[in-house]
Design goal:
Layout (H helix, E strand, L loop, with lengths): L1 H16 L27 E5 L14 E4 L1 H22 L2 H33 L5 H25 L1
Antiparallel strand pairs: 1-2
Helix pairs in contact: 3-4
């Protein structure tokens, strides 16, 4: 009896679900579609994008434009940096001339310090100067000579 009751119940449910009650569809569900991700090779602002949903597109077709001005500016900046470095390293004559001028100024300062040292030595002999004054001028002479050696090394 249980089996016949279940059979009647199942057939009634089947008949009720297939009735023609005026609806335009008799099934529902989820439809899946293939998704295609479209990306740009360069970052930037999208200026134009001519695509509508459902359009068929040919392979490698152009569907929009991207403003890549920032990338272009970065490229120009890198090229300018490379050119500036090439100019600095390609012609060291300007740097050498600057160092030679610096060495000339240092030589003039050294000549002045040597003259002052002679003067202080004479004053020290006459008890008109102190030993500290002579020590200070000797220190300045030695420091300047070391600077001149470094400048000459840079020239070489």
């Amino acid at each position: 009896m249980k089996k016949s009751f279940l059979l009647v119940l199942a057939s009634t449910a089947l008949l009720l679900s297939c009735n023609n009650n005026g609806t335009q569809f008799d099934a529902s569900g989820t439809f899946e579609a293939d998704e295609t991700i479209v990306s740009s090779e360069l970052p930037g602002k999208i200026l134009l994008f001519n695509v509508d949903e459902g359009m068929n597109l040919a392979k490698d077709s152009i569907i929009g434009t991207v403003d890549a001005t920032s990338i272009d500016l970065q490229q120009q900046q890198v090229e300018a940096s490379i050119n500036a470095l090439n100019q600095k390293t390609a012609s060291p004559t300007e740097q050498v001339k600057l160092l030679q001028d610096q060495l000339s100024v240092q030589q003039t300062r050294l000549d002045n310090l040597l003259h002052e040292r002679t003067r202080i030595e004479n004053l020290l002999r006459a008890d008109a100067a102190t030993g500290k004054q002579l020590d200070d001028i000797n220190y300045q002479v030695e420091a300047l000579k070391k600077e001149m050696v470094m400048t000459q090394q840079q020239i070489n």
